[in-house]
Every structure is written in C-alpha cells, then in structure tokens.
Design a protein that fits this description.
single chain; alpha+beta
C-alpha cells in the first residue's frame, strides 16, 4: 500500500511539475508573433489571435484559442476571410507515453468563413498557396508514414455555429451555408463511432436544410473510411421547386479506400416525394477525371407532379426564356467526368404520356454521351432508342435512331399532344442527326429519314366515304342536305416514308387502303410551323355500303383530288368537287364515245 501511495504522490508531483513548466516556462503566447509573421510573409494576410492562449491540464492536457481571424485580400468587401470564436483541443496525457493520441475533446464554436469572388476574378483563396512555397517540389511522403502512431482515440468532437458566406460579384449572387452542428462521439481507429450533423443553406432561388446521422469508422491503417447506416433527410424549398417544396430521404452505406482512391456507395433507400429508388455507385477518383459506375432501380415515377404550372408566362419571363433558348447550353461539365450508368424503372409518366418497364444504359466519356440502349413498353407496344450527344465542340452535335412497334397510336397522340387524329396499331422507325441544341436550331438543322405503317385504324376528323357519297348525290341532281355522320374514315393500312430537312418533313408515298377506297399521294408537314400541305388522290374501289352506301357507286374508279391543310392540331380536309365533275364528265364522255362506236360498227355490219 505504501508503494501505491508513493506512486500516486510521485505521479501527482509530475503532473504539477509539468503544469508549472508549461505555465511558467513554456508560454504558448510566445509563439504568437512568430505565427502571425509567418502567415503574413507567406500569404500577405493578417492573422489575429485577440485573446491569450491558455492551457488545460489533468486529466487531459490541452490548449484554448479564442477570437481568431484571418483577413481577406485587400479591397474585399469583408475584411476577414475566416473568424473563429473559440477552439478547445484537449489531449489525454497518459496515452502519449505509449505513442497513442487520445483527444479527450475538440470543440470549435463560431466559425465564420467569408468567400468572395470579385468582378476581375480575384478570390479569397488567392495567395494562400504561399509565395515562398510556390514552385518548390512537393515533399516526398515519409517512409515512416502511418508507423509512428500506435492508436488514435477521440473522446468527442463538436463543431457548432459554423457559417459560410459565398459572394460572387460577377453573377451578383450571395449564398449562405450554416452548419448548426457536427458531432462525433467516442472514436477509436478500427471502431465505429456515432456521427451527426445539422446543416442549412440560403441560395438565391431556394433554401436547403439537411440532417444526417450514422456511424463512421476509420481503419487502423488510416487508409479506409466507412460510413454505416447513414440516414439523411433533406428539405428543399423555393419558387422554382416543384410544388414549392421537396423532401428527400436516403439511407446509404459508404466505403472509401484512400489508398486506391475509390469510393463505393450503396443506396439502400431513396425517397423523393413518391419516387423510390435503390442502387449501387462506385467512383474511382485517382485519374485525370473521376470515373463513375452505377446501377439504379426506380419504382413508379410521375414527373408531371414536378412540372411547373401551365399558366401563361409573363412578358418579361417570355423574353428571358427566348434569350436563354437562343444560347447553346454549357456542356463543358461533360468533359469533367466519365461514367457508365444503368437505369431501370417500373414506369415513367411525363407530359401525360405513360411508359413502363424502362431499361436504359448510358455512358459518358471524354465529352461524348452515348445512350446505347433505351427500351420501354409504350401503349401496348415497344419503344427502342439509341442516341449520342457530342459536346467536344462549342456547338454540340447529336444523332439518334428510334423505333416503335405495335403501338396504339391514338392513345399515344391524345396523351402526348392532345391530338385526336389517327388510330390504329403503328410501327415507326426514324434515324437522324443534327447540330446545335438551341430549340429553334434543332427543328431547322435536324436531318432524318424514316418510315411508318399503321394497320386496322381510322383517320379522325373526316369521313371520306361520306364526302364521296355527297359528291355522288350532287352528280345525280340530289342537292338535299347531307346526313350527319361520325367524322371518321376506317382503313386497313396506312403506309409511307419521309425525309426531314430544314424543319420540313416530306412524305412522297402516302398510301391508305381499305375495302372501300384508296388514298394516295404526297405532302409535307412543317415541324416548325406545324403546317400541313398534302395533295392526294382518292378513288372508290368497292361499295360504300359498309359506311352507309347503297348500289354500285357512280364514282367507282374515278380518281378524285383530295387535299389536307391546316395544322397538326386542327387539320382541314377538302374534296375537289370541280375536279370531280370534270373527271366524271370525262368518264361519261368516254362511255358515250364507246356506245356510238359500238352502234356504228353494228350498222356497218360488224366492220
């Protein structure tokens, strides 16, 4: 017992002696001028430590700093780039003797960072690389790196009341980020420790708040970091946000291999409004640009809920939209990352158009985006698309190939464009390319070729058999009013091909066939103005009884000009009755000629 008693007495004397030495002999404030001068010499900035540095002792030894600031470059709106109200760092004394660092507590309170970008491009970071160190080769990593530290334990870390203000004079924007708290619980190498943060931001057009908590582990080799069960809740609000507010939650597992410079994220849960997703993402960040590989799986997605209201924009908004749409989008970011991404979705609804069973494979490399596969179920049929966008030049170029098979075209047109014009089972293929992503230029510069086929369908808005019956009645002298019937023309097939140049689709071989009539000819459709211009020929090849006809038609075999004009949404159909009368007169004249010829031959005795 005496030995134990004397041990504590000696230990207590050592602690008192160490405290006395540090307090009386080793004053940390003696180094303040040297530190201030070194910062001034290397950065040109002013470092201010307003209050005296003070020691803390047993059971942990530490130092306390308060009222610390680092100035911005001369001429900036805010004099200080960085301000700290208080920093307290405490290190457990006894573990130091066995080369173990045990931080009893690290507290940082009232950290304020002011980052400015001036009109001339100068920023708050200019000069911080150090005037003397510039040009010197980086020091080689020590061969003893990672070997001198037997262990690292942290009792706790608390960072509170941190604010980051970002002012950009070039864009006239100011952003404010607040880290209300960042806490780390009992921490040791190779063991999980609780981590939590609370963060919010005020941006020019929205506000953001985020809260996260989970477990963190740093490997004993200091070369691997793992985040386990990281649950993040985000809330975004603003006039430009769908429904003015969007809540997002996610649950992830994250691992970072610092030696291999690779990050892997497992997204176990993602919910944004009613959109749910899961997936895996890995990032290799050791190269010139990061390389990302990912696979994401979504449930049902209704993008219409996120679309802005369809109210007419104001005149100022319209002018701003026109000015923006007249500029090529900035795609320079496509050169800053490479990725391969696979996406599946149960269904996607956009612009009231519903698709399901999505499978999409995307790859971005060196500024070229390739959509190698996009397939989906589309209105009882199939959609297949491949495409490429090349952003290596200032004016991007693109190409695509698209096909639809056995799609119910009426439901598609009604949902996608609110057009009730055509029904039937459609097959469609198109291949095209162009330059410029400005909306007006895309319509003008797009060059494409394709073909279409619609079977067992109908053309809505016109009843061609009824128009022919009316014309036939007038030829017979019946000028009574026409019957009121449904404006629809049934057909068994509608086929054609087209080319698209300068915003005009030319269709040289339109052919519509049914047991009653034939319709053929050529025309154009202007995708810029949506104007239609078709000159067609129709003829009766069977009895019109199927759509209200009676005896054999007097128009049987007569070719009648038929025109389509108007627009996509309001097409106009016209039967050329004047040409019809001329054709019928010619037909009757030929019949009279044939009868006279037969009669004359009989009178001449068969000669």
């Amino acid at each position: 017992m005496k030995i134990l008693k004397w041990f504590f007495v000696v230990f207590f004397i050592l602690i008192i002696s160490l405290a006395a030495y540090l307090t009386l002999v080793f004053d940390p404030n003696d180094f303040k001028p040297q530190l201030v001068d070194a910062v001034k010499e290397n950065t040109g900035r002013d470092l201010v430590v307003a209050d005296k540095l003070s020691w803390t002792f047993f059971p942990s030894i530490g130092i306390k700093l308060s009222k610390v600031s680092l100035s911005n470059p001369s001429g900036f709106d805010t004099s200080s780039m960085l301000e700290v109200n208080e920093i307290v760092a405490e290190v457990a004394l006894m573990p130091l003797f066995s080369k173990q660092v045990e931080i009893a507590q690290l507290n940082v309170d009232g950290l304020t960072v002011n980052l400015e970008t001036r009109i001339d491009g100068q920023t708050s970071f200019d000069g911080l690389e150090g005037s003397k160190s510039a040009g010197k080769p980086a020091a080689e990593p020590s061969s003893q790196s990672g070997k001198g530290l037997a262990g690292l334990n942290i009792g706790g870390v608390a960072i509170t009341n941190t604010q980051i203000r970002m002012l950009d004079e070039k864009t006239g924007t100011e952003q404010l980020f607040n880290l209300e708290k960042l806490t780390l619980g009992q921490f040791a190498l190779g063991e999980f420790a609780p981590l939590e943060y609370q963060f919010n931001a005020e941006l020019p057009d929205m506000t953001l708040s985020s809260h996260g908590e989970g477990l963190i582990k740093v490997d004993a080799s200091m070369q691997a970091i793992e985040l386990k069960d990281l649950k993040i809740l985000n809330s975004v609000a603003g006039e430009g946000i769908p429904n003015k507010k969007l809540d997002i939650s996610l649950l992830t597992q994250v691992s970072i291999a610092l030696d291999k410079k690779r990050l892997k994220l497992s997204l176990e849960e993602f919910i944004a409004d009613q959109i749910e997703a899961k997936g895996e993402v890995s990032v290799a960040y050791g190269g010139k640009v990061p390389n990302i590989d990912g696979q994401l799986s979504f449930g049902e997605i209704d993008l219409d809920k996120f679309m802005p209201p369809s109210d007419a924009p104001s005149q100022s908004d319209d002018k701003q939209t026109q000015a923006t749409s007249a500029q090529e989008p900035d795609l320079s970011a496509m050169k800053l990352v490479n990725f391969k991404l696979g996406v599946t979705a149960e269904s996607i609804k956009v612009a009231n158009m519903l698709t399901s069973k999505w499978v999409m494979n995307l790859a971005l490399k060196d500024g070229v985006l390739n959509l190698s596969k996009l397939s989906a179920n589309l209105y009882k049929g199939k959609l297949s698309v491949t495409a490429q966008v090349d952003a290596r030049k200032s004016v991007p170029s693109y190409s695509f190939e698209k096909s639809v098979e056995k799609v119910q075209i009426r439901e598609l047109l009604k949902d996608a464009a609110e057009i009730d014009l055509l029904a039937g089972t459609a097959n469609f293929t198109v291949k095209g390319k162009g330059r410029s992503l400005i909306t007006a230029n895309m319509k003008k510069n797009l060059a494409a070729k394709g073909q279409f086929e619609v079977s067992d369908g109908a053309l809505y808005g016109v009843n061609i058999p009824q128009m022919l019956r009316d014309a036939q009645a007038k030829l017979s002298g019946d000028l009574s009013s026409t019957a009121s019937v449904e404006k629809k023309t049934d057909f068994t097939s509608l086929t054609g091909s087209f080319t698209l140049v300068n915003g005009v689709a030319s269709n040289p071989d339109l052919l519509m066939a049914s047991p009653l009539i034939r319709l053929s000819g050529a025309g154009t459709a202007n995708i810029v103005t949506e104007a239609l211009d078709y000159s067609l020929i129709t003829s009766v090849v069977g009895s019109l009884e199927g759509q209200g006809g009676g005896e054999r038609e007097a128009l049987h075999g007569v070719e009648i000009p038929f025109a389509i004009s108007g627009t996509f949404s309001e097409p106009k159909f016209a039967l050329d009755t004047a040409a019809l009368f001329d054709a019928k007169l010619k037909q009757e004249t030929e019949k009279v000629k044939d009868k006279l010829k037969d009669s004359l031959l009989k009178k001449l005795g068969g000669f």
